[in-house]
Amino acid sequence: MTQAAELLYTARTHTRSGRHDGISRSSDGRLDVKLSPPGGAGIGTNPEQLFAAGWSACFEGAMEMAARKRKIVLPRKSAIDTEIDLLLDDGTYALRARLNVSLPGLDRETAQGIVAEAHQTCPYSKAVRGNIDVTVALV
């Protein structure tokens, strides 16, 4: 990142007790969630679900930008089904991700170009590149 990078936004949250019956709240009050372990009996969400939701929303925005450059409007029914796996690998935890992108109504070549560009420009994709196994597929 260059020193000339312009700060656009800072998300601030306060989390207590982690994924075991914890809570996480944003400083602006828009996010207020209960946390629980994946697959557990708790009533809250878990960090993997939050990561999947954040990444897919960001990826959608990156696709919109890629489409705009091509003077294309993304289909209203575009969707991303994101799966984040929590793995135990040789005694340590790791993540694996799959983003399954649907762009109905676009020809396959155009849709693949939009998805490929989005994966290069999405901040979440950039953050995990080279760190976790990621599959991005046009479905």
How would you explain this protein's 3D organization?
- The protein has 139 residues and is of the alpha+beta class.
- The protein is built from 3 helices and 6 strands, in the order E-E-E-H-E-E-H-H-E.
- The protein has helices at 47-69, 108-121, 123-128; strands at residues 13-16, 23-26, 32-34, 79-89, 92-102, 133-138.
- It has a 3-stranded antiparallel β-sheet with strand order 1-2-3, with no helix packed on it. The chain has a 3-stranded mixed β-sheet with strand order 4-5-6, covered by helices on one side.
- Strand 2 and strand 3 form a beta hairpin.
- The longest helix has 23 residues, at 47-69.
- The protein is globular, with a radius of gyration of 17 Å.
- The mean pLDDT is 95.
Descriptive terms for the model:
3-stranded mixed beta sheet; 139 residues; alpha+beta; 3 helices; single chain
What is the H/E order?
Answer: EEEHEEHHE
Task: Summarize the biggest pleated sheet.
Answer: 3 strands, antiparallel
> Which consecutive residue ranges, at least 5 long each, have pLDDT under 50?
none
Number of helices: 3
Radius of gyration: 17 Å
Question: What is the distance, rounded to the nearest whole angstrom, between the alpha carbons of the first and last residues?
Answer: 33 Å
Structural class: alpha+beta
Mean of all residue-level pLDDT scores: 95
Helical residues, percent: 25-40%
Could you give the order of strands across the largest sheet? 1-2-3
- Write down how many β-strands occur, each being a DSSP E stretch of 2 or more residues: 6
Beta-strand fraction estimate: 25-35%
Shape: globular
